[in-house]
Amino acid sequence: MKRRLPTTNDKSNRGEGPLRKNLVYCLLGVVILLVILLMSGTTVSVPNNERVHTVTDVGQSNVNEMVQKIVDEKLMDMMLEFKEDQRKAADLSSRFPVKKIFAKDRKRILVTGGAGFVGSHLVDVLMMQGHEVTVLDNLYTGRRKNIEHWINHPNFNFIVHDVVDPIQLQVDQIYHLACPASPPHYQHNPIKTIKTSVVGTTNMLELAARVGARILLTSTSEVYGDPIEHPQKETYNGNVNPIGPRACYDEGKRAAETLMYAFETQSKVEVRVARIFNTFGPRMHPNDGRVVSNFIIQSLQDEDLTIYGSGKQTRSFQYVSDLVNGLVKLMEGDYTQPVNLGNPDEYSIGDFAEKIIKLVKETEHDTKSSIIKLAGTKDDPNKRQPDISVAWNELHWKPVVDVETGLKDTIAYFKKELEEEGRTEPIKPQELRGN
Ligand SMILES: NC(=O)c1ccc[n+]([C@@H]2O[C@H](COP(=O)([O-])OP(=O)(O)OC[C@H]3O[C@@H](n4cnc5c(N)ncnc54)[C@H](O)[C@@H]3O)[C@@H](O)[C@H]2O)c1
Question: Which of 136, 217, 342, 378 has the fewest CB atoms lying closer than 10 Å?
Answer without folding.
Answer: 378
